[in-house]
């Protein structure tokens, strides 16, 4: 198959390598000429994935129409907050009557409109329909998949046949794809877990114990469930790879950018200080605002997300918000 990947960050490049391993022809689009120059000459992205050499057959361009020539599958892996603009350009491409499957591996919720990524794509690409937009999500760090570490993830689409097509295209002997028709739950889990991972990082930064981190992950999961249920997700998704699986990896992994942001803040940096030395995207930062807004819109309480919001955007001290969390009214565990 001819595959076009929109986005040359660590995850786009890694998924391109998976598809190349599976025998597909991969072309990349990036907004950055500097990235085209770097990747075309060095075939690696040392700042993001040191030591990983990408195939010579990969092509890179800033011309999206050129990258999309003959595309049978399009994989979008750009930061969530630029998804709308990237899709506006993508929409100008003429697929000549044959609508390709569009796979979205971005995790996040758009600030301002509070839309999930499949909603942003569908709104901005009029010739696409929901049967052709598949979400790829689950516990995956590019640092590991690029080294072909065993991994399992979810392909979610309301149309089961499209999810199965993506399952077949991406699966191989080191990456195993499960299908789901719960795209809402899959997208919400993959987005909100990043906010909980910032909280986990804060706990690392202040030197909290394992008990505290286990409590955070479990109660973070309860928040994701509560929001997901209110927005129409299937509750079984929360216990699966896109739910608990991804929450665990992002809260605990040394590779997690969201955990890293939290850890720096826990050690005393401000958000703008952390952002000034981050080389990669930490989606939990914008998603914290959108998750809070989404929850407010359906009258769902997300105490941990709200606490992270206070620390990130209102300069509250971690110790203060943790005390507030601990001192809330006592209640039964299963109340969500
Ligand atoms: N890295 C991972 O391990 C991983 C795993 C699963 C999901 N994801 C998700 O994939 C998405 C992309 O993350 P990543 O790790 O590949 O990115 P990254 O942090 O490695 O790099 C970001 C990339 O965004 C692109 N970019 C920046 N500004 C842009 C703009 N204005 N227009 C278009 N492109 C722009 C650049 O090409 C840059 O390389 C995120 O939503 C992330 O949560 C990442
Ligand atoms: O490195 P993070 O924290 O952005 O997480 C990346 C992936 O979402 C983990 O599945």
UniProtKB/TrEMBL annotation:
Broadest EC class assigned to this enzyme: oxidoreductase
Database matches in SUPFAM superfamilies: 6-phosphogluconate dehydrogenase C-terminal domain-like (SSF48179), NAD(P)-binding Rossmann-fold domains (SSF51735)
UniProt EC number: 1.1.1.94
Annotated InterPro entries: 6-PGluconate_DH-like_C_sf, 6PGD_dom2, G3P_DH_NAD-dep, G3P_DH_NAD-dep_C, G3P_DH_NAD-dep_N, NAD(P)-bd_dom_sf
Protein residues bound to NAD(+): 7-12, 31, 142, 257
Annotated ranges, domain Glycerol-3-phosphate dehydrogenase NAD-dependent N-terminal: 2-162
Active site: 193 (proton acceptor)
Compartment(s): Cytoplasm
Reactions catalysed, as given in the entry: sn-glycerol 3-phosphate + NAD(+) = dihydroxyacetone phosphate + NADH + H(+); sn-glycerol 3-phosphate + NADP(+) = dihydroxyacetone phosphate + NADPH + H(+)
GO molecular function, one term: glycerol-3-phosphate dehydrogenase (NAD+) activity
PROSITE patterns the record matches: NAD_G3PDH
Keywords: Cytoplasm, Lipid biosynthesis, Lipid metabolism, NAD, NADP, Nucleotide-binding, Oxidoreductase, Phospholipid biosynthesis, Phospholipid metabolism
Primary localisation category: cytoplasm
GO biological process terms, semicolon-separated: carbohydrate metabolic process; glycerol-3-phosphate biosynthetic process; glycerol-3-phosphate catabolic process; glycerophospholipid metabolic process; phospholipid biosynthetic process
Pathway info: Membrane lipid metabolism; glycerophospholipid metabolism
Binding site for substrate: 107, 257-258
Ranges for domain Glycerol-3-phosphate dehydrogenase NAD-dependent C-terminal: 182-323
Function: Catalyzes the reduction of the glycolytic intermediate dihydroxyacetone phosphate (DHAP) to sn-glycerol 3-phosphate (G3P), the key precursor for phospholipid synthesis.
Name this protein carries in UniProt: Glycerol-3-phosphate dehydrogenase [NAD(P)+]
Species, as recorded: Hallerella succinigenes
Organism placement in taxonomy: Bacteria, Pseudomonadati, Fibrobacterota, Fibrobacteria, Fibrobacterales
Gene symbol of the encoding locus: gpsA
